[in-house]
Design goal:
The structure is a single chain. The longest helix has 14 residues. Helix 1 crosses helix 6. The protein has one domain: Class I glutamine amidotransferase (GATase) domain (Rossmann fold, 3-Layer(aba) Sandwich). The protein is an alpha/beta fold and 214 residues long. The two termini are 16 Å apart. 27% of the residues lie in helices and 30% in strands. Strand 1, helix 1 and strand 2 form a beta-alpha-beta unit. The strands form two sheets. It has a nine-stranded mixed beta sheet. Strands 6-5-7-10 form a four-stranded mixed beta sheet, with helices on one face. The model has no long low-confidence stretch (mean pLDDT 93).
Length: 214
Amino acid sequence: MTVVIIDYGSSNLRSAAKAFERGITEVGLSLNVLVSSNPDDVINASHIVLPGVGSFADCRAGLLALDGMMDALSESVNEQAKPFLGICVGMQLMGSIGLENGDHTGLGWINGTVRALEPRDKILKIPHMGWNDLDIRNISHPVLDGLSDGSHVYFVHSYYLDCDNSDDVLATVDYGGPVTAMVGRDNIIGTQFHPEKSQLIGLKLICNFLKWKL
């Protein structure tokens, strides 16, 4: 079985790959980690990870530029229901539409709009960068096992996914008001924060994702 981290030119994937390799060691599973831009690898994966750094439009364009990747994602995630994790802009791409630098269609897996952060406290800087505490809305989700309110995770973002359905929001963070920090339904989850940079809490979440059985 293989965890495929999709490479579509959006970021340096070394830290993500190493975090998942460490997670596999922690949980003692027979999994490999593969960073790939090949749709066939996604079709053959047991777990799929979509990271993302940069703008919604650029990440979307990078994903669309990989011939056959959108079809591979649809088959693997929607039809075969493989565990899927979107990270940062990878989570935002799960939404219906992104409003960064124009209107751009997302994957449409989570109904909602990716909007600019507008904290009520104007002293707060954009981008939101640094460590913040999670407010967990769905403590029963298996990927949140062992996490609790106040779990400290690392963010770097200027936009967020504003979900149409509050049931899709697994956790928020307070940044001049509640901001979506984690979403999920069925076999898909997404984190606005970076689990690969969130030390022990991030590692715990990655381990939970690797063990996740639907």
